[in-house]
Every structure is written in structure tokens, then in C-alpha cells.
Design goal:
182 residues; elongated
């Protein structure tokens, strides 16, 4: 009986769980696009924080910190998640980080909408004003990106959970763990 080792092989530092949940190509593309988006938005925030615009000293209506502090914290959160998406190994944790970040930002957006109706999110700082996109369309695009980040990673986490609940080998078949070695 021939065993296909290539299906269950793992790379350096990879566990069988991470190798088997690396997922379909769309999931890898999703994480790559999320990583690039986070790098771009965190860069815009950091460039804005380095500036001297008046709005940076104004208190945020949701967190009661200055806009400068809120932008800096958000940029560091984005960079942290982007770094893990780049160098991390656990696919579940990668998608979990994306779900956490996107849901955190969406809750902030909801709180901003409730506490200050009509005010727009300054999530790109003053750099967003340099773009040739009307502010309401930019805001809509960023919320859409957050929803897509959240849904894509939540969907993948659900698929990973379902795959983990299904037995990996049919009953009566030989697997690597049944060989008696170990």
C-alpha cells in the first residue's frame, strides 16, 4: 500500500495543523491583499501623525484621546497584524488577527456614527485629503474593505473549524500516527 506523504508533509516550523489549513488560493490572496492594504493605511496614518495639522490635537469623540494618539495606535495595530500576516505561521491566528482588527475598526466606526452623526472617520489622517476621491466615497470604500476583510477571514476560520471536525482518515485506513512509532 502506497502512502502519499506529500499531502501531509510540512515545511520547516510548520505543524500538520498549519499545513492542512493553509487553505485554498483565494485565502492566501485574501491575506496578501489585507496585508498590502494594512501597510498602505498604516503608512498614511504615520505620515499624518508626523504632521502638524490642527485636527491632530483635537479630542476624538469616541476614545477621548487626541486624534494624533488614535491614529498612532491604529497604525501600530495595523502594522502588528501586517507583520504577523507576513512572518507568522499559524493560519488560524492570521485570520483571527484580521477578524479582530476589522471588527475593532468597525465597532469604532459604529461608535463614531452614534456619538457624532455626520462626522467622518479620519482613518487616513490628512493623507486621505490628498486623494482625488470625494470623502464620502473614500469612507464608503474603507468600510467596504473592512467588511470584506472581516467576512473573508471569518469565512476561512469557519471552514478551518469544519475541516478540523471531520476525521482526516476513513475508519480502517492506515495513517502516519497509527504506525506505532512515536
Amino acid at each position: 500500500m502506497k502512502v502519499r506523504a506529500e499531502q501531509n508533509s510540512t515545511g520547516p516550523g510548520e505543524t500538520e495543523a498549519t499545513a492542512s489549513t493553509a487553505g485554498p488560493k483565494w485565502a492566501r490572496v485574501h491575506l496578501t491583499l489585507v496585508r498590502l492594504l494594512l501597510i498602505l493605511t498604516s503608512t498614511a496614518k504615520l505620515v499624518s501623525v508626523a504632521g502638524e495639522q490642527r485636527f491632530l490635537a483635537v479630542q476624538d469623540p469616541v476614545l477621548y484621546l487626541t486624534n494624533r494618539a488614535v491614529l498612532l495606535i491604529a497604525a501600530l495595530m495595523e502594522l502588528g497584524v501586517a507583520a504577523y500576516l507576513t512572518w507568522g505561521r499559524d493560519m488560524r491566528l492570521k485570520h483571527g488577527c484580521v477578524v479582530w482588527l476589522a471588527s475593532t475598526f468597525l465597532v469604532y466606526r459604529l461608535a463614531l456614527w452614534v456619538t457624532s452623526p455626520g462626522s467622518r472617520c479620519l482613518c487616513l489622517g490628512w493623507v486621505g485629503d490628498l486623494l482625488l476621491i470625494p470623502p464620502h466615497l473614500l469612507d464608503y470604500a474603507l468600510v467596504t474593505a473592512l467588511v470584506l476583510m472581516l467576512v473573508g477571514s471569518a469565512w476561512r476560520l469557519r471552514a478551518m473549524r469544519s475541516a478540523a471536525e471531520v476525521p482526516s482518515a476513513p475508519s480502517g485506513s492506515v495513517s502516519h500516527t497509527d504506525s506505532g512509532q512515536g
